[in-house]
Specification:
heterodimer, A: 68 residues, mainly alpha, 0% strand, globular, B: 463 residues, eleven-stranded mixed sheet, two-stranded antiparallel sheet, 13 strands
């Protein structure tokens, strides 16, 4: 499924996230980098929402390393 | 001679039909003549190559075993540490870093097997790329038609092997960066199980997703290189400790014991007819009539996207703070976005990953090998930004990896097997197995090569 067709999280505001989180990380985003950053933040939000909608049991742990 | 497979080159060298030094000189000439167009190399290690070749020739003259890859010319994606060179990882920033003090583990292992290193290869910046384009070093061009992309992020690997500048290359694959260039350039590429081959001395991208592996023009060559590189390594915390399991001796022994199926649902949508035709051709040759569904593959792809965006951004946070303007614009804005991602998105993706892994392992209780397209299309033109799929125009970059991402996400071993198109551009099929079964995917790829279904003839024309 292409990300353009996924829905972002309800009420998600990429500009507000950028303006709040970037200073907290000591990240100064130049005006010329802002439109691209917002575009990709919106794309990530759509992807993330699709994953967040999936119900997982409480005991399902993260699994960054795999064993057969 | 330079268009021969690694296996045949070794045989020629051992029969003294050509010396390793002569072969190296021919490969260097091929690079000199073709690279102004292809732009596959960022560094050519001429002196080192001639020194390594001379060592092989000395061993042969003394009657010693020169190794299973004696004299085979190879090159590595420039995220591998090459002693004495800065490890670029496709970036401008890293060019200012100190030179590597030692070779990456996999280079050390290939050198011990007798292979000859010819240099570092161009790549998409910091491996966050499927195109092979790079704003600092220029795009790598596809040897089948230089107007087209080589694929990424291991674009130099794809072009160098396809154009017979080298017989083997080493690349990395976080979401498809070995399999995509293999598809666009018509090569065999192996992404082993996560944790199988050491990543020590390779510049990382996303530690929980990064794999290294070989490219070649034959499945037999992939197995030779893979066997030479296996083994644990305390320098890579993700590298596992089982003893090496050589695969090369198992090739060509038939596939009667294997249950092979085609992935449907997610993997039967979003691609061009050429992608599906290639899978059908491979399935027919293998008499694979069963289909299987990998549950929630679309969500797995989205979760891989999230994990990549977050881990990649975290790795580069200091560089983004201090030198954002020095990044490739196509990479920088995605990393900046990833740095702003809420932690809950990342953790949900990692927990989903565990669920998905368990479900896919159940599929592998029913079948041994699964087939799927490698890319939705053959190589796009350099500079292309959009792709038309099933009549709908979509962004190109986020869609090149739709079939590769859900599989590397859970570390499965995969060979990209190339299908040549008469008069057109090649495309590859993914041959997928359960974790730690590289033997199965390489056996299937070798069978397809033996039948003439999958093939990777060198592009030998002048550029």
């Amino acid at each position: 499924m292409t990300p353009e067709f996924l829905a972002p999280p309800p009420g998600f505001d990429a500009q507000a996230v950028l303006d709040t989180v970037a200073p907290a990380l000591g990240l100064s985003i130049a005006p010329e980098h802002r439109p691209g950053t917002l575009l990709f933040l919106d794309l990530s939000a759509r992807m993330a929402q699709f994953v967040m909608e999936f119900e997982l049991a409480d005991d399902l742990e993260p699994a960054p390393v795999f064993r057969p | 001679m330079i268009g021969l497979t690694a296996q045949n080159l070794v045989a020629s060298i051992k029969r003294r039909e050509i010396s390793a030094t002569e072969l190296t000189q021919r490969a260097l000439k091929r690079i000199e003549a073709s690279d102004p167009v292809l732009n596959a190399f960022t560094d050519v290690t001429t002196e080192r190559a001639l020194r390594e070749a001379a060592a092989v020739d000395r061993k042969l003259a003394a009657g010693d075993d020169p190794g299973p890859l004696a004299g085979v010319p190879y090159a590595v994606k420039n995220l591998f540490d090459i002693q004495g060179l800065p490890t670029l990882a496709g970036s401008k920033i890293n060019r200012g870093y100190p030179p590597a003090r030692r070779d990456a583990t996999l280079i050390q292992r290939l050198q011990a097997a007798g292979a000859v290193l010819l240099g570092g290869l161009n790549m998409g910046e910091y491996a966050y790329d499927f195109t092979g384009e790079n704003s600092h070093y220029g795009p790598t061009r596809n040897p089948h038609d230089p107007r087209y992309m080589a694929g990424g992020s291991s674009g130099g690997c794809g072009a160098a092997v396809a154009a017979a500048q080298v017989a083997l290359a080493l690349g990395s694959d976080t979401n498809g960066s070995i399999r995509v260039p293999s598809s666009f350039c018509g090569l065999f590429g192996l992404k082993p199980t996560y944790g199988r081959l050491s990543r020590a001395g390779a510049f990382p991208f996303c530690t929980s997703l990064d794999h290294l592996g070989p490219f070649a023009r034959s499945a037999y060559d992939l197995a030779l290189a893979y066997d030479a590189m296996q083994g644990s390594d305390p320098l890579d915390p993700a590298c596992t400790t089982p003893p090496p399991q050589p695969v090369f001796p198992q090739l060509g022994t038939g596939l009667k014991d294997l249950r092979i199926a085609v992935a449907n649902d997610y993997f039967a949508h979003g691609g061009t007819p050429q992608a599906y035709a290639a899978v059908a051709q491979v399935a027919s040759a293998l008499r694979a009539t069963h289909v299987v569904s990998l549950p929630e593959a679309a969500r797995a792809r989205a979760a891989a996207f999230v994990v990549t965006n977050c881990e990649g951004a975290h790795l580069h946070l200091d560089r983004l703070r201090q030198r954002a303007a020095d990044f490739d614009p196509d990479v920088r804005d995605r990393l900046l976005a990833g740095a702003l991602m809420p932690a809950n998105w990342y953790l949900q993706a990692q927990r989903f990953r565990h669920w998905y892994h368990r479900e896919v392992l159940k599929v592998f209780e029913q079948v041994d090998v699964v087939l799927a397209p490698a890319t939705p299309c053959s190589a796009p033109e350099i500079g292309q930004k959009q792709l038309v799929i099933e009549g709908v125009t979509v962004m190109l970059r986020p869609n090149i990896g739709i079939y590769t991402q859900p599989l590397s996400f859970i570390g499965l071993p995969i060979v990209a097997a190339p299908i040549q198109e008469a008069g057109g551009l090649p495309i590859a099929v993914q041959v997928i197995a359960a974790p730690w079964r590289e033997d199965r995917v390489l056996r299937v790829a070798a069978e397809l090569e033996n039948q003439g279904v999958a093939a990777s003839p060198a592009v030998l024309r002048d550029f």
